[in-house]
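Hi W., the S-adenosylmethionine complex you wanted:
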Amino acid sequence: MQHIDIIQPIADLYARPAYLEIGVCDGMTFHAVSATRKVAVDIEFRFDLDQARAAAGGQDVHFHAMPSDRFFEPDIIGDDRFDLIFIDGLHTFDQTLRDLLNAMNVLKPGGTIVVDDVLPSSYAASLPSYERSIALRQETGNRKNHWMGDVYRLVFFIRDYLPAWRYATVGSGPFHRLILWQSPRRLGPTRTVEQISRLSYGDVRLEIDAYDIRPLDAVLDDLRVHVAAHRPAGSSPERDGD
Ligand SMILES: C[S@@+](CC[C@H](N)C(=O)[O-])C[C@H]1O[C@@H](n2cnc3c(N)ncnc32)[C@H](O)[C@@H]1O
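Structure:
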């Protein structure tokens, strides 16, 4: 399952989806997404921006070559608000936490946030340092080239500190994405932030229930109800394709 197989069905829940992607790389997902408005942010796009802008023509598609922290500053983000935000930039706990909190501020009512790589596939993949992850893989003969960083700590932060947000995890193979939307739930057991920042790969595997891993269709059923509850009166329901 590619990112687009998760992102597009969510985008299609909105009549006129406004989509933001943090961390776009070569645009494999961003270029494939069909949405009314699309905004791309990357510290270093891996494609020619002039060509991409020309190809977008008169469409409502925008590219911001800058760190995500800068993009969320008031003079850039302005009043822009989004229905769906995909966070796939720097894969560390600190950065994804900042991206998430910033994303929550610019999400429209009824919006959805997706975060990539929340469940590391190995100890090496879970290291916050990309360089150390590679070095360890080489040392141990691990041929898998996955680096998911310590984004996994974000799941425990959300569970323990953000009870206004529901979430579920959708996975396929070694890749898992967290899907979250604003809806109150009961707060579970809480760790200190310091404890969360020290959680290890072993803790994750032993506390896998924290992820609420579910099939995409089951999560889409929940999102459909969530989106419908926030739909402005008189507006059309899900997209029928532009
Ligand atoms: C995993 S790739 C994104 C893949 C893309 N979302 C896709 O679906 O094909 C991560 C990207 O995040 C970008 N990135 C890293 N740190 C960033 C930051 N602080 N702000 C914005 N982008 C960042 C990198 O340049 C890289 O292109």
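The mean pLDDT is 94.

W.
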